[in-house]
Amino acid sequence: QVQLVESGGGLVQAGGSLRLSCAASGNILSIKAMGWYRQAPGKQRELVATITRGGQTNYADSVKGRFTISRATAMNTVYLQMSSLKSEDTAVYYCNAVRGIVKDNYWGQGTQVTVSS
Length: 117
Hints:
By secondary structure, this protein is an all-beta fold. It has strands at 2-7, 10-13, 18-26, 31-39, 46-52, 57-59, 67-71, 77-82, 91-99, 104-107, 111-116.
């Protein structure tokens, strides 16, 4: 099992920045990748960014050049640095971890990011 706890959400003006953190605990040695997803009201959850244990990253087109994902070497913490925020970035942001050969998925409880225009 893996437990994920997000922090760092809040209210920010358009053009501002926020940094999200996700702390992982439990069986973290077998985590293969971690990432951030978001869900806006009335919309489906969507991928924001992912990072593998080896450091490979993947971003949604909508955040490329504005968001940066990084992780601690031990894969016990993942960060999302968000810059040049837009109102359309408003959503609940969820941390995700993929573990093991069968790629079990784990989710945090989510943290609200609100961007005011």
